[in-house]
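Below is a filled-in request sheet from our internal design queue. Each sheet records the structural input a requester submitted and the sequence that came back. We keep these sheets so that new team members can see what a complete request looks like end to end.

REQUESTER: design group, bay 2
PRIORITY: normal
MODE: inverse folding
CHAIN LENGTH: 296
BACKBONE (tokenized):
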């Protein structure tokens, strides 16, 4: 199988990197005067097989140009590409059929697909937690950051190591000048405002200083967190399945869209589709939708 991992790259001023940069990347500011809209979304579906009918219905209703999917729990060979193609979506998937798995669905092209990255940390083995591709002139990443479980768990150390390596890889994407979007389930609440009750999370993962520092380090590369508005209630993206937590509004904002500095000013709207968390057999996450105007 062809190796599609991201290898350590030379600095961005190098001619070698210029040759590697996909020619389809948008040069924002030189685009035609007419607006070029892009609807970008991210959704942890918590099992694509279980959620497929809901996903297909949502895609028909919302029509994102690009959807980043996490926790697919589907091997690449079993991904429902035909059903998605019927709706106009190309698919790039990375998964083993176990407890992780990521994908990108695109109606605006899918080029230079890269699954995972070199020296990606492993717990017992390297997991399917990252995929990226060029979609409509934007480098889009779909990431599923490890949960961490507990502060004294080896999974927590794995989470921090994974985030540190992601930082090393993303620094070469040149987010200060290139159109890049990193979307997905980060399993980090950026601030205390992003959980329903900070007191409940004292001594827990998702809010620890080390995790938030790791997220801040990503932002310092040149990315901007894009907080969505909530259709109802607070702008949370995740509510545990335990009885009543969704209806009581006891959620967290852990699904994020990080936009490079040239993309962030292009946001027209950003919202959480809370209705997708309702009904029969929903995911415990809701989609985050971001509308971009890529015109001049």
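RETURNED SEQUENCE:
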């Amino acid at each position: 199988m062809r190796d599609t991992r991201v290898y350590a790259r030379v600095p961005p001023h190098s001619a070698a990197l210029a040759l590697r940069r996909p020619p389809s990347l948008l040069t924002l500011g030189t685009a035609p005067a007419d607006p070029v809209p892009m609807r970008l979304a991210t959704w942890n579906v918590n099992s694509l097989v279980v959620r497929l009918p809901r996903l297909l219905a949502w895609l028909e209703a919302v029509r994102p140009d690009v959807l980043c999917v996490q926790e697919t729990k589907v091997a690449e060979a079993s991904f429902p590409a035909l059903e998605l193609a019927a709706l106009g979506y190309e698919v790039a998937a990375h998964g083993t059929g176990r407890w992780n798995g990521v994908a990108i669905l695109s109606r605006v092209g899918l080029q230079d697909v890269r699954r995972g990255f070199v020296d990606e940390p492993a717990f017992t083995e390297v997991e399917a937690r990252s995929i990226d591709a060029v979609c409509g002139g934007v480098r889009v990443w779909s990431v599923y950051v490890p949960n961490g479980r507990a502060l004294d768990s080896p999974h927590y150390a794995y989470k921090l190591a994974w985030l540190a390596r992601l930082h090393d890889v993303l620094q070469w994407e040149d987010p200060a000048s290139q159109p890049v979007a990193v979307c997905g389930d980060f399993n980090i609440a950026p601030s205390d405002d992003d959980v329903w009750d900070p007191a409940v999370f004292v001594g827990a993962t998702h809010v620890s200083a080390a995790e938030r520092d790791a997220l801040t380090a990503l932002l310092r590369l040149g990315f901007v967190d894009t907080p969505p508005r909530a259709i109802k209630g607070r702008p949370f993206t995740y509510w545990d399945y335990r009885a009543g937590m969704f209806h009581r509004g006891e959620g967290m904002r852990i699904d994020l869209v990080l936009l490079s500095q040239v993309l962030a000013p292009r946001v027209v709207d950003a919202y959480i589709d809370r209705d997708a968390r309702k009904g029969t057999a929903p995911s415990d996450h809701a989609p985050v939708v971001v509308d971009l105007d890529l015109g001049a």
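SHEET NOTES:
- The chain has five helices and 15 strands.
- Residues 154-170 form the longest helix (17 residues).
FILED BY: M.R.
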